[in-house]
Amino acid sequence: MNWLKGYWELEEEIATSEKKLKQLQGDPSIQILESFIEEKKNTKTELVELVSTFKWLGNVILKLKYIDGMTLENIAAHLGFSASYIYKKHAELMNTMKGEVN
Q1: How many domains does the chain have?
Q2: Whether residues 64 and 102 fall in one domain
Q3: pLDDT at residue 101 is higher than 80
Q4: Residue 76: which domain range?
């Protein structure tokens, strides 16, 4: 599940860099930053493609929620599980991830 942390870090790097890019209008170093942003976006796309191949239910739930933006109720319906099961599974995943960070 470390891929999710990596995804969030990429999102943060891209957002921060795009903000800097707006501040650098007319600066010669803008091309370097544009290349950096493009590289990060490509990495993010590759990560999403890789995660899309994961079959373990936990990874599928995390991808659908945090990358695809689905609600837990919609994930349950999409995967054919009860909403309570998906809520419980998601809570377990979040607790596991918190343990990995500490």
Answers
A1: 2
A2: yes
A3: no
A4: 55-102
